[in-house]
């Protein structure tokens, strides 16, 4: 399987990319927390090999735990459920599918030489 | 309008309830002789098994009726329309309803005054008190109630005899062949049976039978029939039957249009009905008439089912007919007979002993065209032909609920399970014998729809369990590819993780399984509100050495954890960050502990009391047994969490009857209770088996747990599961092996016990698994800066992070 990040968009070259971890370090459908310039970010690898990065803070409980949620799908959308009270968020848009008023910040990802990178700008 | 009701038993209760439900606006005064409001007399025997009087009390009937308890109506003045009570109270009425029930018949033999009867809670209190100093008991009467009473005496520890005048037991319900098989069952329970002989006299400590036999008897109970309490009507000059009972018409009205009679005191259509179903039906008819309706009572189903420990006896419809089909297996203790019309097309009735499945399924079909050959119908139930019931077929005869009403409750009122059906229709709330029928109707109505676990699986948990087991599936990916869709969610993934763990053990963090676990299972600890975790070292049975207590204290001190004694006899250590968990476990493992499951759907704790080692009352080693059980079942993954307790005597200091399985020591063994629950919907556990040896106890619990694991729904505690399948069915399966799966269940538990390992130790020892216990993948040395504590009562407490939503 070829690791792919979010589709490259115009302007990506101008971003600052921060290396997070090796591709192989992430278990499929499980997340990990990363600290990037003082922000907590949750990174996930889905079953089909894509990577996503969202904010690690669960907006409902205020705890920094999104990386520990269960990853799956709703309809076709890849999602993560907060481990606290199980609200479900899209990994693509960050929007809470149970309550579209609430969303997690999302961050672009890519894989370079087997390393997962995130941009926080 | 002023209504006065004399008597406050089930019939009076149903009358008041019906009036309230239908918006009656007058005043109601109920005068009851017993010191308590109406209770479920059908379930009376459970009082001796520990059900509290409060639990037997029928629900508040919902009317602002004035209820006078502990007083008796002694006179009715029909001219002035008043009743007078023993305490001298006078009450005027526009309508009087007699609901005085019946009284046990006490045969006029010498010494009858020494005997007890079996009708009220006070009767049972007296029997219990007398049994405390006795070793032997005699029940006079081998009918339905007599056998129930005999079994109760046996449960009180008395060597018990049953004396029946008729030629065999339950002569009114079963024929000679059925009687013989029934006798075999009753004798196997340890009761001694004397038939074809009456009682001559009762003396101090013994009874003498008409044939001269003398039996030691510390306690004697009469259960030789009942007599309607029609004395008020007699004295008021109202017609009563030759053998008793207040004569009423189809509208339940006596000869005086202002006076009705309902329940066991009434003689309706020339019959007195001694079953709660018809009594309730009469009450509803009378209520309707009082409100100006025209309902009528034209007779009722006399089906009965004996609620005797482990023995099914049932009869329904007519017990004679032109043709009959009989199946008899004296070795297996099964006797079944169906009566059909002479053209063999209509079912007339039947008798079942040892297996009441045909009763539940065929009772509603009485008087109807047969749907299969009579011999096939005898095996209706497991594997037999499917029986479809018409809408007007009665399903619950205790509460007069038809198939059509159940259908409506499902279709229109959204009932999707047995508890919901009980709530909306009252079906199944009395004797419980219709519970299997309710479950099969739900299935027939396609409520299967609702069992879909989530959008990814159209199956229920128990169906998935069977799929995984039968097809030998070992991964989530294969299961969802072949039987589901998408990639799962927070509902189905933990369920599948639990099924895989129940079936073939292995570490919860092994390979793909790691991705299925909810956060607690994933970090092998309980998440707290600020994202830290708690650790609860296992303390089997609550027994712990001073050295180990000190270790727990040291670990808590060294890692700065908050400590609290839990309600489950262990110590919870809170506030550990993910990266600290393996370090904490390491310390515990080195000191001989394992961390415990305070998380996960698995065995939590087996609580114990002090027991016979120290307690002056203890009769058995409850601590030893609790430890053995906790070690046997630790790590067992199940549909919901499992809790247990063992008490060393009936004082029950371990609160075993509030647990999924509870064990209480007796002089002669262990009593096993199942299906208890605290939590959201508390429920007392029910007695499954008595006087078990250590081995029998463990085998029974093994099967109970494995059967639960196989068949319960997601997040269904054993209490709700038993409500759904019925205690009788459970007992049939795990004691009588009615499904032939006990060997399988036993083997599954052996696999669990043999395959158990300490999952925390295994994690600490595996560098691959340890890699996930870091604060940040890219900054493992930096602790999570959002975790902040302050000090309260000398310990840490999380500082609440302000909740804002972006
Ligand atoms: C620690 C403890 C409270 C205490 O300090 O005493 C506790 C704490 C929690 N209970 Fe409990 N329960 C604790 C004893 C009980 C008891 C009493 C008992 O076990 O004797 C009950 C009622 C008995 C029962 O379960 O039938 C109890 C009924 C519940 C329920 C309701 C269950 C129900 O059937 O309605 C939940 C919710 C659930 O499981 O879905 C729950 C859930 C929880 C959770 C797991 C909630 C959560 O997800 O965070 C709590 C987390 C524990 C932790 O972080 O360590 N807890 N909980 C007790 C741990 C006992 C132990 O050593 O294992
Ligand atoms: C142990 C046992 C098990 C049973 N099992 C079953 C079963 O499995 N299935 C089944 O269908 N039925 C069963 N029954 C029968 C069922 O309980 C009765 O049919 C039902 O209780 C009848 O209700 P009732 O209200 O007519 O009479 P009762 O329950 O007898 O109530 C009448 C009440 O009126 C009071 N009373 C009497 N006279 C007066 C007065 N003058 N003034 C004031 N109060 C008065 C009495 O004290 C009593 O409280 C069982 C009964 C017993 C005892
Ligand atoms: S249940 Fe009985 S044996 Fe156990 S502590 Fe209480 S009194 Fe003692
Ligand atoms: S038949 Fe007795 S409760 Fe339904």
UniProtKB/TrEMBL annotation, chain A:
Name this protein carries in UniProt: Nitrite reductase (NAD(P)H) small subunit
Keywords assigned: 2Fe-2S, Iron, Iron-sulfur, Metal-binding, Nitrate assimilation, Oxidoreductase
GO biological process, one term: nitrate assimilation
Position of the signal peptide: none
Underlying gene: nirD
InterPro entries in the record: NirD (IPR017881), Rieske-like_NirD (IPR012748), Rieske_2Fe-2S (IPR017941), Rieske_2Fe-2S_sf (IPR036922)
PANTHER family: NITRITE REDUCTASE (NADH) SMALL SUBUNIT, PTHR40562
Gene3D superfamilies on file: Rieske [2Fe-2S] iron-sulphur domain (2.102.10.10)
TrEMBL record, chain B:
Keyword Transit peptide attached: no
CDD domains: NirB_Fer2_BFD-like_1 (cd19943), NirB_Fer2_BFD-like_2 (cd19944)
InterPro entries for the chain: BFD-like_2Fe2S-bd_dom, BFD-like_2Fe2S-bd_dom_sf, FAD/NAD-bd_sf, FAD/NAD-binding_dom, FAD/NAD-linked_Rdtase_dimer_sf, NasD-like, NiRdtase/SiRdtase_haem-b_fer, Nit/Sulf_reduc_fer-like_dom_sf
Reactions it catalyzes: hydrogen sulfide + 6 oxidized [2Fe-2S]-[ferredoxin] + 3 H2O = sulfite + 6 reduced [2Fe-2S]-[ferredoxin] + 7 H(+)
Residues reported to bind [4Fe-4S] cluster: 609, 615, 649, 653
Domain BFD-like [2Fe-2S]-binding: 395-443
Enzyme class: oxidoreductase
Domain Nitrite/sulphite reductase 4Fe-4S: 600-734
Family: Belongs to the nitrite and sulfite reductase 4Fe-4S domain family.
PANTHER family reported in the protein's UniProt record: NITRITE REDUCTASE (NADH) LARGE SUBUNIT
Protein name: assimilatory sulfite reductase (ferredoxin)
């Amino acid at each position: 399987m070829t690791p792919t990040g979010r589709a490259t968009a115009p302007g990506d070259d101008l971003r600052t990319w921060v290396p997070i971890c090796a591709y192989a370090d992430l278990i499929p459908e499980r997340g990990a927390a990363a600290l990037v310039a003082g922000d907590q970010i949750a990174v996930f690898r889905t079953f089909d090999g894509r990577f996503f990065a969202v904010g690690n803070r669960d907006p409902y409980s205020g705890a920094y735990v999104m990386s520990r949620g269960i990853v799956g799908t709703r309809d076709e959308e890849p999602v993560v459920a907060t481990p606290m009270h199980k609200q479900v968020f899209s990994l693509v848009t960050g929007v809470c599918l149970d309550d579209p008023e609430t969303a997690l910040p999302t961050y672009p990802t890519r894989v370079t030489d087997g390393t997962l990178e995130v941009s926080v700008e | 309008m002023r209504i006065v009701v004399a008597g406050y038993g089930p019939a009076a209760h149903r009358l008041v309830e019906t009036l309230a439900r239908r918006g009656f606006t007058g005043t109601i005064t109920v005068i009851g002789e017993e010191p308590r409001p109406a209770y479920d007399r059908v379930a009376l025997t459970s009082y001796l098994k520990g059900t509290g009087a409060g639990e037997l009390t029928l629900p508040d009937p919902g009317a602002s009726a004035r209820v006078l308890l502990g007083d008796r109506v002694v006179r009715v003045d029909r001219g002035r329309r008043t009743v007078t009570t023993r305490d001298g109270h006078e009450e005027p009425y526009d309508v009087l309803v007699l609901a005085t029930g019946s009284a046990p018949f006490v045969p006029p033999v010498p010494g009858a005054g020494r005997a007890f009867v079996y009708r009220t809670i006070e009767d049972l209190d007296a029997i219990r008190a007398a049994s405390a100093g006795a070793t032997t008991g005699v029940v006079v009467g081998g009918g339905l109630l007599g056998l129930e009473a005999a079994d109760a005496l046996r449960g009180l520890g008395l060597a018990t005899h049953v004396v029946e005048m008729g030629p065999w037991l339950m002569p009114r319900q079963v024929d000679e062949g059925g009687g013989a098989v029934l006798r075999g069952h009753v004798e196997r329970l340890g009761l001694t049976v004397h038939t074809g002989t009456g009682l001559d006299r009762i003396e101090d400590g013994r009874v003498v039978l008409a044939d001269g036999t003398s039996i030691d008897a510390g306690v004697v109970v009469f259960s030789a029939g009942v007599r309607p309490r029609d004395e008020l009507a007699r004295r008021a000059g109202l017609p009563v039957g030759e053998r008793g009972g207040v004569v009423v018409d189809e509208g339940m009205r006596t000869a005086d249009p202002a006076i009705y009679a309902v329940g066991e005191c009434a003689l309706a259509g020339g019959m007195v009905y001694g079953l709660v179903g018809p009594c309730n039906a009469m009450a509803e008819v009378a209520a309707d008439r009082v409100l100006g309706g025209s309902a009528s009572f034209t007779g009722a189903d006399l089906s009965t089912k004996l609620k005797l420990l482990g023995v099914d006896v049932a009869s329904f419809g007519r017990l004679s007919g032109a043709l009959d089909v009989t199946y008899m297996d004296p070795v297996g203790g099964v006797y079944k007979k169906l009566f059909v019309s002479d053209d063999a097309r209509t079912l007339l009735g039947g008798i079942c002993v040892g297996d009441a499945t045909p009763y539940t399924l065929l009772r509603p079909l009485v008087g109807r065209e047969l749907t299969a050959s009579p011999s096939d119908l005898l095996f209706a139930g497991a594997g037999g032909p499917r029986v479809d019931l018409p809408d007007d077929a009665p399903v619950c005869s205790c509460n007069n609920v038809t198939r059509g009403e159940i259908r409506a409750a499902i279709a229109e009122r959204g009932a999707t399970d047995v508890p919901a059906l009980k709530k909306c229709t009252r079906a199944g709330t009395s004797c419980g014998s219709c519970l299997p029928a309710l479950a099969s109707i739900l299935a027939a109505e396609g409520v299967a729809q609702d069992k879909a676990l989530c959008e990814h699986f159209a199956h229920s948990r128990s169906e998935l369990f069977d799929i995984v087991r039968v097809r030998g599936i070992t991964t989530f990916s294969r299961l969802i590819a072949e039987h589901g869709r998408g990639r799962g969610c927070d509902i189905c993934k933990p369920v599948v993780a639990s099924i895989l763990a129940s079936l073939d053990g292995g570490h919860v963090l092994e390979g793909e399984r790691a991705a299925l676990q909810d956060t607690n299972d994933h970090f092998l600890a309980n998440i707290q509100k600020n994202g830290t975790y708690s650790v609860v070292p296992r303390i089997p049975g609550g027994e712990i050495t001073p050295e180990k207590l000190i270790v727990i204290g040291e670990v808590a001190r060294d890692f700065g954890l908050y400590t609290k004694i839990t309600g489950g006899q262990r110590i919870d250590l809170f506030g550990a960050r993910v990266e600290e968990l393996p370090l904490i476990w390491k310390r515990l493992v080195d000191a001989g502990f394992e961390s415990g499951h305070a998380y996960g759907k698995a065995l939590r704790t087996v609580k114990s009391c002090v027991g016979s080692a120290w307690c002056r009352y203890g009769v058995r080693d409850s601590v030893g047994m609790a430890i053995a059980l906790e070690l046997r079942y630790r790590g067992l993954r199940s549909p919901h969490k499992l809790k247990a307790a063992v008490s060393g005597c009936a004082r029950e200091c371990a609160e075993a009857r509030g647990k999924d399985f509870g064990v209480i020591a007796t002089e002669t063994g262990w009593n096993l209770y199942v299906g208890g629950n605290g939590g959201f919907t508390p429920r007392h556990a029910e007695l499954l088996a008595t006087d078990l040896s250590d081995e029998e106890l463990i085998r029974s619990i093994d099967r109970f747990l494995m059967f639960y694991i196989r068949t319960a729904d997601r997040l269904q505690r054993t209490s709700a599961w038993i409500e759904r399948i019925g205690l009788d069915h459970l007992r049939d399966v795990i004691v009588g092996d009615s499904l032939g799966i006990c060997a399988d269940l036993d083997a599954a538990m052996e696999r669990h016990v043999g395959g158990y390992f300490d999952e925390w130790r295994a994690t600490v020892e595996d560098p691959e698994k340890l890699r996930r216990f870091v604060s940040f993948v890219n900054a493992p040395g930096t602790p999570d800066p959002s975790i902040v504590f302050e000090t309260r009562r000398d310990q840490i407490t999380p500082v609440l992070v302000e909740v804002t939503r972006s």
